[in-house]
Design a protein that fits this description.
There is one protein chain. The chain is globular, with a radius of gyration of 21 Å. The strands form four sheets. Strands 1, 2, 3, 4, 5, 6, 7 and 8 form an eight-stranded mixed beta sheet that branches. 53% of the residues are buried. By secondary structure, it is an alpha/beta fold. α1 crosses α4 and α8 packs parallel to α9.
Length: 433
């Protein structure tokens, strides 16, 4: 079982059992002190069993539980925010179908370190019980209506969209939402729980989506993960774009429309965000990698917008404090409606290469400390990020959950990005033998 601020994950009935789920969720319930909770899940086969175990943990406290069934992570985050009720999302996000897990939500945002410690270790306060509990069906989520109100019904009239849900939870709301926006929608892989490609659209070739975009003459293709927080786009030429490019394109539209003067992105996000933001007089702040870190810095800096390019995630804190694929998609679709397909050419696109090296964390940290002495101006806030000539950089960062070092490199050419990644990876290997 892997436990972090991002959530709990594991293979159900192997390293994450029903007993584990009930205990963890009961700990969360006690830590919040609430007597009401929202519960939702994605479309994995283990979802119903996991949800029942989660409900049992909350009912053991005598809590009122509202079960929403299958909805996306952004939808339940929004529901927690507007209803001011803590929530549990049963999902392993972009992990493959055999995995499942738990995300914990308070006030429409992920939990902090104190609540996380209470979840995994048990709260340090006396258990609070509420009498007899109840399990009720949740009301219709307000997510779709809220997004329509935000962007305007019919405001994307005539934009042709192909969607690849990968069998995931975004099926529950994306087509009705896009239809209300005025889009012409072609839907693919839209049977809940039927996974015909890799769950993570960042890692999949999205072959069917790319082919469909070209054959149907679509303006854009949207690829979602299982819980509907990640987004990868396919442009009108059928080219799959990176998560970094998607984030840059969405932010370019939202920064103009909101007039925001600051944005927060993770340390491994493309410098294209800096190019776009700088042209609009907007300052870019960089957080440690991880959604929780991005959101934390957004709140600290008073920034409304943020995201992580590597995970295809965009965050608008005025609407949701989590990656929100549909909000990002609508921002881009709005840009296409205004500018046409030339919108794709309005932001720069750099080339990224990302490698994973199996190196024990202790050895990796020693090697990075040595390397930091060679690069005096490197950023050591999360691993080591080295800025290089020709608008290039390399980030070497030990994973927080496994003995892996992630080496990310970016440059203006694919060849240089690959050369940089391989070169620094080779040095790390030699230094950690």
């Amino acid at each position: 079982m892997i436990a972090s601020l991002s959530g709990i994950r594991g293979v159900y009935n192997q390293d994450l059992t029903a007993v584990d789920v009930s205990k963890l969720v009961a700990n969360f319930g006690r830590a919040t002190g609430s007597h009401q909770f929202l519960l939702a899940r994605d479309s994995r086969a283990s979802g119903p069993a996991m949800s029942r175990a989660a409900a049992a943990g909350l009912l053991s406290l005598g809590a009122e539980v509202y079960d929403y069934g299958i909805v996306s992570t952004p939808a339940i985050f929004r529901e927690s925010r507007t209803r001011k009720i803590p929530a549990v999302m049963v999902t392993a996000s972009h992990n493959e179908p055999e995995f499942n897990g738990l995300k914990f939500i308070v006030d429409g945002a992920g939990i902090g370190r104190d609540v996380f410690e209470a979840v995994v270790s048990g709260p340090k306060v006396a258990p609070r019980e509420f009498g007899e509990g109840s399990l009720k069906r949740g009301p219709k989520p307000g997510y779709v209506d809220d997004l329509v109100a935000r962007f305007g019904a019919g405001s994307a009239e005539g934009v042709r969209v192909a969607t690849d849900f990968g069998g995931g939870a975004a099926i529950a709301h994306a087509v009705p939402l896009l239809t209300q926006m005025g889009c012409e929608v072609t839907s693919l892989n839209d049977s809940l729980g039927v996974f015909n490609r890799k769950v993570d659209p960042v890692a999949d070739d999205l072959t069917l989506l790319r082919k469909t975009v070209v054959e149907k003459g679509c303006d854009i293709g949207l690829g979602f993960d299982c819980d509907g927080d990640r987004l990868v786009i396919v442009d009108s030429d059928g080219k799959k774009r990176t998560g970094d490019y998607m984030l840059t394109l969405a932010l370019s539209e939202l920064l103009v429309r909101t007039g925001e003067k600051s944005v927060v992105v993770s340390l491994d996000t493309t410098r294209a965000v800096d190019d776009v933001a700088g042209g609009l007089g907007c300052k870019v702040f960089r957080s440690r990698v991880g959604e929780a870190n991005v959101v934390g810095m957004m709140k600290e800096r008073g920034a409304r917008l943020g995201g992580e390019g590597s995970s295809g995630g965009m965050i608008d804190g005025a609407f949701n404090y989590c990656r929100d694929s549909m909000l990002a998609a609508l921002a881009i679709i709005q840009g296409l409606g205004t500018h046409g397909r030339r919108f794709y050419e309005t932001v720069p696109a750099y080339h990224q290469v990302r490698l994973a090296l199996e190196i024990p964390k202790a050895r990796a940290l020693r090697a990075l400390r040595k390397l930091s002495g060679e690069y005096g101006d490197a950023d050591s806030s999360d691993g080591l990020k080295v800025m290089l000539p020709k608008k290039s950089w390399v980030l070497m960062r030990p994973s927080g959950t496994e003995d892996v070092v992630r080496v990310s490199a970016e440059s203006t050419s694919a060849d240089r990005a690959e050369q940089l990644a391989e070169s620094f990876a080779k040095r790390l290997k030699e230094m950690t033998k």
